[in-house]
Each structure stands twice: as structure tokens, then as C-alpha cells.
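Re-running HlyD family efflux transporter periplasmic adaptor subunit to confirm reproducibility after the cluster update. Everything else is unchanged from the original entry.
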Amino acid sequence: MRKIILSVIGVLVIIGSILLAKSLIASKNKPKPVLEKVVKTVFIDTVKNGQIQIEIPGNGSLVAKRRVEIYSEVQGIFKTSNVLFKPGQKYNAGQSLINLDASEYYATVQSAKSNLYNAIAAIMPDLRLDFPEIYQKWQNYLNAFDLSKSAPQLPEMSSEKENYFITGRGIVSSYYNLKNLEQRLAKYTIRAPFTGILTEALVTEGTFIRNGQKLGEFIDPSEYEMEVAISKSFASLLKVGEEVQLTNMDKTNTYIGKISRVNGSIDQATQTITTYIDVKDPNLKEGLYLEANIKGETVEDAIEIDRNLLLEDNQIFILTNGMLNAISVTPVYFSDTKVVLKEVPNGTIILKRPVPGAYVGMLVKPFDASANQ
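Result of re-run:
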């Protein structure tokens, strides 16, 4: 009985082995699955060479083209006036900004003026006797002499004798001493050099002002200047008188300025050249930050693309027969986001947007906007 059971088990093992072998042979003959090739969709553009206007970016803050720091050359008490000396106050050209109390110094000037008048009056009898031909000239000078006004210029000397006589009496030295005092007296009143606005006031009425003390700042708000640092590589593109488009940081307002000056030297530390742009607009204020687009030269037969489409070895991807290829190009200008290229044949199909992981020979297909509608 035992032999029969072992014989049956042996037959079953042999049959199972045969079936397993047939199954393995059948599985080897099955065809391998074909992997579907992935074809990426890309955005493309067709090259059309033309004129590209190069724009050089820059930025800076506005500064009044005409500004004056107000200092005192004399000392005295700041007298009150009808117009308060406060920031934002407007003044016309020649209008008094600050009046210092000059009563004591005014008396000194009047004393010197009186001394000059007396010195001339004392020589009049001698002039009548010894120099009758010039007597009337000096008499007319005395008649025009007004102690309440600035001393008139001395009559012109007509002869050497007259010069010696007048100079010997100390009249010429007294006259110039008086004019020196009058010049200093005028400094007790500080006037606006031009029509403008006060932007800084460091003193108030009643303050004792000292010689050399800074009193404030005064600007002309009708014209501003912006200083822009431009890379030295663009120095040849900067032209005095060229119009420049200026925009504020919010891109809400646009202004037109002009290049007024270009520095003749390059900053050794930054390797930039300083350019000055003039701009006029009633809405502008000093200190406003603006961005400038300076027009440079016009490049013929060129295209402009995004900088991230340019490969490291000055190549760009093109589309030929459904796959990517690369061609060499010549970059002529780089901005922050764009690059201007030459030597790209017309009609060449190039990428409009970068493709992650792109390589030469990669299968791609152009994006069809009509298929998604």
C-alpha cells in the first residue's frame, strides 16, 4: 500500500513539473510592452529680424537743480516779519528771507558816511581857489550825497594833481572804508536768490544767530536733476540732449527728461559713469525715486528674446522636424530680462518659453491654441 501511495505522489510531481515548465516557456514568448514616447508641448516663435532700440535702465532720486544752503555771515537777533521762516514757505526772487537786527551796525555805517561827507566838504574852499576847473564836479557830488542812501561813486579824477590832492586828504580811503561797511550791512538781510521754496529751517524768529551758522535750505522746485550710474560699457551710447523716459516706482506716472551732462571719468570702485538727467514737472518733488530708460543705439537685423532662453555657450534652441536643435548666435546687448541677438536667420522657429530639461534631439510639438478652444 505504501508503495502505491509513493508511486502516485511521484507521478503527480512529474506532471506538475511538466506543467510548470510549459508555463515558463509560454511566458518567455510573450511580446514586451512598447513604452510610449513622451512628446513635450512647447511655445514657439518665428524669427523676424528688424530694428531693435536698445534701452539702458537706470534709477535715482530727484534733486533740485538750483539749491542754496543758507548761512549767516554776520551775527544778530532774527527779527520777526510778515512771512514765517518755515519749511514749505514760498519766496519770490529778491524777497527777504531773514532780517537780522542791524541797528548798532547801521549807526557805524552812518558815522562813516558822515565822516566822508565832512571830509569832502572841508576841501571845497581849497578846490574853489586852487582847482576851479574841478570845483563844480565835486560840488555836484556833495549835492547828490544822501545820508539815507548808499554813498555814490566818487567823481573820476581828471588829472594827476587832482588825484594827489584828493587822495592826500584821505577821501579815497574813507570812501572805500565806507563801501566795505555798506557791503557788510547788506548781509544783515538775506534775500531769495531766485523764486523758490524753503525746504529746511533751522532757526526761528527771536533766535540769536552767529556768524557762520547754517540757517536752512532753499530750492527752485521748477526743475530737478537725477543722478544715474550707468555701466561703463554703455558710455558710448550716452548723448547729451537725448530724451529719457522716467517712471515712478508704481509705474503710474511717466515723465520726459533730457540728459544734461555726462561725467568725463569712470568711478573706479563701481566701474560706472555718472549721467545727469534734467526733468521738469509741477507734480515732482525733491527726493522722489524714479526709474529711467535711456535710449541707446538702434541695432539692425536683430531680435530680442528672454535672457533665460540663451544657453551658456551663446546658443539657442530651435525647432526642426519635431525635435530640438541648437544654433550659435551673437549677443550684442544684455538687459536685466532681455538679450538682443544677431545672426539668427529669418523664419527660424525658436522657443518662446524655456523648457525644463531640454536637450538637443528632444521630441517636442508646438502648442496649438486652437485645439484648446
